[in-house]
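Hello forum,

I keep getting stuck at the same step: I have a sequence, I want structure tokens, and every attempt I make locally crashes halfway through. Rather than fight my setup again tonight, could one of you with a working pipeline run this one for me? It's a single chain of 181 residues.
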Amino acid sequence: MKVYTKAGDDGTTGLLYGGRVDKHDLRTTAYGTVDETVSALGMARAELDGDAHDRVLEVQRELFVVAAQLATRADHWERLEIGISRVGAGMVDALDARIDACVERHPLPNHFVVPGGNRAAAALDLARTICRRAERYTVAMDRAGLLPDDAPVRYLNRCADYLYVLARETEGEHLPSRDDA
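Reply #2:
Ran it on my machine without issues. Output:
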């Protein structure tokens, strides 16, 4: 199998279940930014082991679901499967539960946190900011009428929150504050 198809040489890309759009299209920008988030999370995961490693991998896999949904025209969404290629409410609810559990294990600081307490936390914070950018592009898709429902927006919003609490937990006891930077 070849990696290249040459179909995109004209500046367009194919969507899941058909159709082509410009590579600078709002849709490709949104799901491409989700892909960037997945890669940044790979940097974090490479620094982690055990449960923290597995929690990051779980988010990476869920972000593939978000990207698949964003890469599909709305008129093909009925072909998508919840949890496989379409975000379901349960995915958002599960993130809420993971956030709450993480905060219970490691309460959040009550001061401004400067990222960079350790390599894994710094990578998680980078992924968080990229996820927020993906969320902004996905909101723009929603406002442009490209999303039949807002589940991808809700997932990305909650995902960025989860990455924040994971970064704080990963930093452990040494949480850099404004004074440490």
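The longest helix spans residues 119-143. If your local run keeps crashing, start a new thread with the error log.
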